[in-house]
Structures are given as C-alpha cells and as structure tokens.
Design brief:
55% of the residues lie in helices and 10% in strands. The protein is α/β, with parallel strands linked by helices. The radius of gyration is 18 Å and the shape is globular.
Length: 220
C-alpha cells in the first residue's frame, strides 16, 4: 500500500499528471497521479488514506519547498494540475460523505479589484491540503462576502487585494465580517498587505507564503 501512496505523493510533488504528460522529463512514460490514484482505489485503499498519504503529503512538500524558494510558481502550478487530476477520482467519495473535508473556506478578491492569481495559488494549497474552497472570484463586495458566510458557514474567509486603492474595501469588508461573524477567521493577502495593516483592520492573519495560511488553519 505504502509504495503506491508514496508514488502518488511524488507525482504530485513533481507535477506528473499522467502517463502521457511529458513533464517532468525524467518521469516521461511513467504513470502519473491520475493512473496511480485510480489503481489505489481499485486495490481498495481507503480514499481518505489516498488523500492524506498521497495528495496532501505531496502538496505539503510543495508548500515547504515553495516557502524556502527551492521551487517557483510554475512548479506549483504543475503540482496543482497533478493534484487536480487525482482529485477527480476522489470527488465521488467527498460527495457521498465517505471522505470529509477538513473544513470550508470562502475566498474572494475584494470589491474594485480584478486580480486573482495570488488568491488562486492560496486556494490550490488549501485544496491540496484537504480543505473545501469556495471561490467567489474577483470584485466581491462586502455584502457578497456576508451572504456567502450565511450560506456556506465556513471556518474562515480569505480576502485578496493587489491594489492600494482597493485596500480600503478590504478594511470595510473585514470589519463587516468580524462584526457579524466574530467566530469566522479572516485571512487577508496581496502585495500591499502588511502585518500592521492586517492587525489594524482586525484580520486574524496574513502571510506572503501560501503554506503559512494552510499551517494557520490546521491549528484552528
């Protein structure tokens, strides 16, 4: 059992999607996360075990390497592609309830801001670590965040802003969420967002590294 799970973990870490994928070159022609996950299920390995010891293990390694600048954004993107291919086989088990997410996170770029690359990267790490991410996209108003919280009842909300001109909307949104749902954790991020700003607006955490958002939520 452990051998195939270790292979899945390596495929996620290296971004090996399937046997047809040419990347990485040294694994060309070998089975990827797609085929190996299907095989693991055929061998009656529990889906939760595949998720934790295969996919999450691989993404945790990606997160640590990314934080240490040992790999870069393109490496993260191909790892996420491999993880997504494998997750396609596990999704029916989430739907049936056989596998449970760790929790639910709402993500969105604040009102007036149309940038979402950073948000998507954080979402990849969260999904790869077993969290359910509901992404509301860009230009999300305070009212939309409030409605989303009422509807989905998440553990946390992640907000992104890339422009200094839209940080004012982030401040309004954080304060609105915290006033109505003080139990919901609020994570803020984006190039202009600092620790001082996060503390000022009442957010629970901010970080320049996606893995740190995962680590924070793991300890809640």
């Amino acid at each position: 059992m452990n051998n195939i799970l270790e292979k899945i973990s390596v495929c996620v870490e290296r971004g090996k999607v399937n046997a047809d994928s040419r990347y990485p070159p040294d694994l060309r022609g070998q089975e990827g996360a797609d085929e190996l996950t299907r095989k693991a299920l055929d061998r009656n390995i529990p889906p939760r075990k595949i998720l934790t010891s295969g996919l999450i293990s691989g993404m945790q390694t990606v997160g640590e390497k990314f934080r240490k600048n040992e790999i870069y954004l393109p490496d993260v993107l191909v790892a996420a592609k491999a993880m997504t291919a494998a997750m396609g086989h596990l999704k029916p088990y989430f739907i049936s309830g056989d596998v449970q997410h760790k929790g639910r996170i709402i993500m969105g770029t604040v009102s007036g801001d149309l940038h979402d690359i950073g948000k998507k990267i954080v979402a990849m790490f969260l999904e790869g670590s077993g969290w359910e991410v509901i992404d509301y996209g860009v230009d999300v108003s305070s009212q939309d965040f409030i409605k989303a919280i009422k509807k989905h009842k998440p553990l946390a909300v992640g907000m992104s802003a890339l422009l200094t001109t839209t940080m004012v909307h982030m401040e309004e949104t954080v304060k609105s969420v915290k006033s109505k749902f003080p139990e919901v954790k609020v994570l803020v991020g984006g190039a202009p967002v600092t620790d001082a700003f996060a503390q000022k607006v009442g957010a629970d955490m901010t970080s320049a590294h996606p893995q740190e958002a995962v680590d924070y939520l793991e300890n809640q």
